[in-house]
Amino acid sequence: MSAQAVLWNVDEERGVATITFNRPEVLNAVDVPTAQAFLAAVQAVTASTGVRAILISGEGRAFVAGGDISAFGSDPGQAAQVVNAILDAMHPALLALREHPAPVIASVRGAAAGAGLSLALSADLVICDEGARFVIAYDRLGATPDCGATWFLARKVGRTKATELFVLSEALGAAEAKAAGLVSKVVPSDELATQAEALARKVASGPTLAYGGFNRLMDSAMELDLADQLETERALFMDMIGKADFREGVSAFLEKRKPVFSGA
Fold first, then answer.
1. CATH number of the domain bearing residue 146
2. Are residues 187 and 116 in the same domain?
3. What is the residue range of 234's domain?
4. What does the radius of gyration of the chain's CA atoms come to, in whole angstroms?
C-alpha cells in the first residue's frame, strides 16, 4: 500500500480493491504528485489478479475538489506545464479503469468538483452522502473541462443538461444528482463508508467479465448504428458463452439456486 497522496489496497479474499485520495488538508485537490500516485495505484490495482470491484474515495470531508489551483501559479507557461503533467497521469489511469472489467464505484463525501466530478462521472456506480455536491467548476477558471468530463457527462445527462451545468455554473446536491442520473444511492454521512464497502462486496460477487462487456456495449452504443451494435452484442454474448461464469449461471438457473460467480 502507498503511504502518500493516494492509498490503495486489494482485499484478495473479497476481490475488492480500494483507492483513496489522501490529501484531506486541501480537500484532496490533485497536483502532479497526486495524479502520478493515482496512476500508480490504478496500475497496481488493475494488474492484481482477482479484482472484481474497485472502490474510489477521498479521505476527510471531500471526495476530490478538482485540480490544485495553487500549483498553477500566475504564469500561463507554468500552468500549462502543470496541467499537462497532471493529465499525462490522469488519462492513462482513467483509460485503465474503463478498460478493466471490474465495476468502479465512487464513494463521494462532500465536494466532487472539476477533476473530482470527472472521476465520479467515470465510475459505473456512485454512492454519496447527503451533503455531497457535484460541481463542474471549470468555468470559474475560464477553462474547459478535462479528465473525460464532457464524454461522461453528455452520456449520463445529455447535452442540454450538461451545457446548463457548465454555462450556468450550477452545483447539484445529492438529491439533485440522483434525480439527474449521476448518483446511484444517497445515504447518511455516517453510513457512507459502510454502505460503500457493502456495495463493493455485492458487486464483487457478480459476473465480472459480463459487467466489463456491458460497459463496452454501452460505450459502443453511442457510436455505432443499430446493425453494427447488434453484431457487437452478438460477438460479446458468444464470448461470454465460453466463460465459467456463464456455465455457472446456466447451471444455477436450471437447478433453481443462486449462482456463485467466480469472475472467470
1. 3.90.226.10
2. yes
3. 208-254
4. 19
